[in-house]
Each structure stands twice: as structure tokens, then as C-alpha cells.
Amino acid sequence: MSAIRIVPPLVSIVLPFRAAAETLGExxxxxxxxxxxxxxxxxxxxxxTDDSRKIAMDFARLDNRIxxxxxxxxxxxHALNQGLEAxxxxxxxxxxxxxxxxxxxxxxxxxxxEENPGTGLVSSQVEHFSPLSLKTEGYSRYVEWxxxxxxxxxxALNRFVESPFAHPSVLFRRQLVSQYGPYSDGDFPExxxxxxxxxxxxxxxxxLEQVLLKWRDHPDRLSRTCTRYAQDAFQRTKARYLxxxxxxxxxxxxxxxxxxxxxxxxxxxxxxxxxxxxxxCFFEVDPxxxxxxxxxxxxxxxxxxxxxxxxFILVLAGARSARxxxxxxxxxRDYISGQDYLFLA
Length: 345
Known about the structure:
Helix 1 (21-32) packs parallel to helix 2 (52-62) and helix 8 runs parallel beside helix 10 (231-248). The strands form two sheets. Strands 3-2-1-4-7-6-8-5 form an eight-stranded mixed β-sheet, sandwiched between helices. Strands 11-12-10-9-13-14 form a six-stranded mixed β-sheet, with helices on one face. By secondary structure, it is of the alpha/beta class. It has helices at 21-32, 52-62, 76-86, 105-115, 137-147, 152-157, 175-180, 190-200, 222-225, 231-248, 263-274, 322-332, and strands spanning 11-17, 39-45, 66-69, 91-94, 100-101, 121-129, 171-173, 205-216, 255-259, 281-284, 291-294, 297-301, 311-315, 341-343.
């Protein structure tokens, strides 16, 4: 009698959930409908008080690819890391209980990783949807922005603007966790900090030019309600990793300067100062801000920006609408993104 051969899953799906009874069933059905069938789902209950746990248990009884993980302590980051620890595949796919996988999501992402062994993380474009009553203009603009970042170079150059991925759209190699550590808990967005850590270590990333996830926005989404996701926390995280990036990519004898001297830019600059970075001069469009508005703050017109080779510019202007105009202005003066300037807002 021959022994039964147990085939390990091609991908482990890590799905933390908490009070997600309204959406969890639909989410699980989208996973069951995947064209790639050799997966395992690690559903980690983060102390739900509604029917979420019962829903997950009912699905697990019907499909042995689904495992319900009991929490050892509360908190999203701990739930994520419990899922990582329980995973048996070398590939980790993230998923949230609010969202929906399109049928070919896992198949296409796993195939990409098999064909590109030098890539450590792959994402996909996402489709944003929400209740009609919820104003989502900001999320829509963010989705449009992140969906345009497809290559490793685009992702790496824009890493300090915002998170380049919708968290539940990513699939990454488990070995990255062994190399760089799991999710960290703190007053910052745990996914964004992890991507910055992976990129700092040299991980190559990509995004498939196809919508493979429906990403739900709603009033209770953590990025809307949790104080850990405050803008200040984003800026502190950016500043810390930017300081490290500048160590890895020294600007030589050029002066470190900044574009923007408004309130948002000055707050960002304060975080940079806290990381030991010294900004020699701020360049500004608004004539009312030009001059020396406070001791130690030198503000000049953007017309004073010298030819390439004399300064490195950190763009701190906060408005999304300004990015393309600033890019055109600098590109027209032969500045090269990543070599002569970098966006932080």
C-alpha cells in the first residue's frame, strides 16, 4: 500500500479579522473561488465579539484548507505575525476581511513569483469601492496614484510619498520575514513600515498591471479610525527611513535642500531634523513665505534653484495636485528623480 503524499500549499493566505461579520463571508467565498486551488488560509481571530469567529469556523468545517488561528494576545500586528508563524508555504498572500479577491489573483501572483525569482514582493492594481454614503475622494485619488506604480523603480522612487501598495493586495516571499523581521508594533502603519524595511534591504518589488482585488472603504477602516495611522506617525516613519536611504545613497558635496516652506512642509522638516538631517535652504513658490520667516529657516524662490549637481531637493509640498507640476519644473531643468530630488509628500 503506497503512502499518501501530502502536497504543501503553493501559497499561505494570512487573514486577520475582528468584528467583520458583515463582510467576512463574502471575502471567504472570493477565496474559495480562486482559480489556483492549492492554498491554505490562516484566519486569525483578533478577539471578535460578533459572529465573525462562528462564520470562520463554519467555513473551516467545510474546507480543510481553512485553519482558524486562536489569538494569544489582542492586536492586529500580533494577529498578522501569528498568521506568518503558522504559514507552511514559502509565499505569503495578505488578505483583509473587508475585501474581495478576483478569481485569478493567486494564480497570477504565484506565477509571477515563480517566473521572477529575483522579486521578493508582488502586488496588483485594486478597485476601490465603498458605501454610497461615504465620501471617498481621498481614497480614490490614492488608488489612482498607487495603481500607476508598477515597476520596482517607480515603487522605490515613490516609497516616501505614501504606501505604494494596498496592504491586502500583496504577496511576498516568507524568507523576507526571516531576513528582515515580521510586522512591527508601534504608532505607525505596520504595513508601510514593513515595505520600507524590505526596500531598505534591497528587496525588488513589482505590481501587476491588472485589478486583482476589490478594496473596500468604510467608516470603520483602521486607517480612518486608529490613532496609530495619524499623519504625524507617517512622517516620523518616512524621516527615519529617508535618513537611512541617504546613508545608502550619499549626495556627496551637494547641499540638502527642500521644496516647500508651508506648515505641512515645516512639520516634515522637523521630523527630518530629529533624524539628524540638516536642510540648508527651503525653496518656495509663494512670495509671502520667501525670506527668513523664523531664525534658522532660509527660504528662497524656486527661481533660485541652481543647476543640477549643487543641491539635492527633498520635495515636502503636501498637495497631491502639485506633484506633477513640481516634477515638470525640475525635469525641465535637467533634474533627475532619485538622483537630484525625491518626493516626501
